[in-house]
Structure formats: C-alpha cells, structure tokens
Design goal:
single chain, Beta-carbonic Anhydrase, Chain A, 6-stranded mixed beta sheet, EC 4.2.1.1
C-alpha cells in the first residue's frame, strides 16, 4: 500500500510556475531517493532562497512518512502534545497549517496519520483519486494558500488507488459492473 509514493510540490510565481517533483520508493530496506532529486533541490534553493523553508517542511513531512512506512511511530508524548487538550485550545484561535495536502479520500491513507502530525498541522483536501480539478477543491487550496498563508502544497497519491484504476479503465472503455448501463 505504501509503495511508490509520489509527492508533488509546486510554487507559483507571477511569471510562471516552478514544479519540484519528488519520487520516493518505499521498500523493505527503507527509502531510496534518486540523485536527481538532490540536484533539483540544490538548483531550486539557489534560484529561490526563500523556498528553502518550504523544502525543510517537506523534508520533515517525508521523514515522518518514512518512519511511519517503516513501522516506527513517533513518541506517544509528542502525539499527546500535538493533539492534546492544550493543542485543541490553541486551535480555537485559528489555524496555521504547515502544508496543504490534496489527497485521496481512501480511508486507509489519512495524511495526519501517515505524516504523524497532530491537529492543525495539515490543511487536507480529500477527493477520490486525489484529483484537483473541481472549483471547490481548487478553491479550498487557494483559501489555504492565500488566506491561511500555508507555504507548501502537496498532491499525495498512493498505490492501489481504486479511483485511479477506475479512471484509467474508463479511458480504455472498461467500466466497473456497477456503472454499466
């Protein structure tokens, strides 16, 4: 289920867009990062020094995901602090998420769990197949970026995604039995 994660992060500039693509393969031996990713990171950090903070946030989330995929859960005390009574009271004043995550509605892959973060850390927009094409979805992302000043946007997919399999099948003219007329 956790093989072949693809994380996309894009930074929009007035004169165009920059996309940083990260591909990690989770295996029994841990995470293998392709060397090209490091070159892209260096290039991006040289061109956009302010982007380094976003890369730090991305690195932290990916490290927490790696630990989760390996079966290493973060300290229970940390989890209690991040989601405890005091954290919930602080969130009554507002939210300051570190990332927007557009992801699949699949109940087996909740971002807060796979990234091992507490309440208020992620602004999550879930849709079947992690598609970001509807106005409501794009509006939610825009709200988080423009109003909440969330610095990082990720599109999170997962392997064995039923919605993506159905979409690919439909493009080939193959429809599930329930949809056929």
């Amino acid at each position: 289920m956790f093989e072949g994660w693809i994380v996309l992060c894009s930074v929009r500039q007035r004169m165009g867009s920059l996309q940083l693509m990260e591909k990690e393969t989770v295996t029994d031996k841990g995470t293998v990062m392709e060397k090209e990713i490091l070159k892209v990171r260096e290039t991006v950090m040289e061109a956009f020094p302010a982007f380094s903070k976003k890369l730090d946030t991305l690195d932290q989330l990916l490290e927490r995901n790696k630990l989760f995929a390996e079966g290493t859960l973060l300290d229970a005390k940390m989890a209690a602090v991040e989601s405890g009574v005091e954290a919930r009271k602080a969130l009554e004043e507002g939210q300051w998420p570190v990332a927007v995550v557009v992801c699949c509605s699949d109940s087996r892959v909740p971002p807060e769990v796979i990234f091992q973060v507490g309440l208020g850390k992620l602004f999550v927009v879930r849709t079947a197949g992690n598609r970001a094409d509807a106005d409501a979805i794009l509006g939610s992302v825009q709200y988080a970026v423009c109003h909440l000043k969330t610095p990082l946007v990720m599109v999170l997919g997962h392997s064995s995604c039923g919605a993506m399999k159905a979409a690919i099948g439909a493009a080939k003219g193959e429809f599930p039995e329930e949809v056929r007329c």
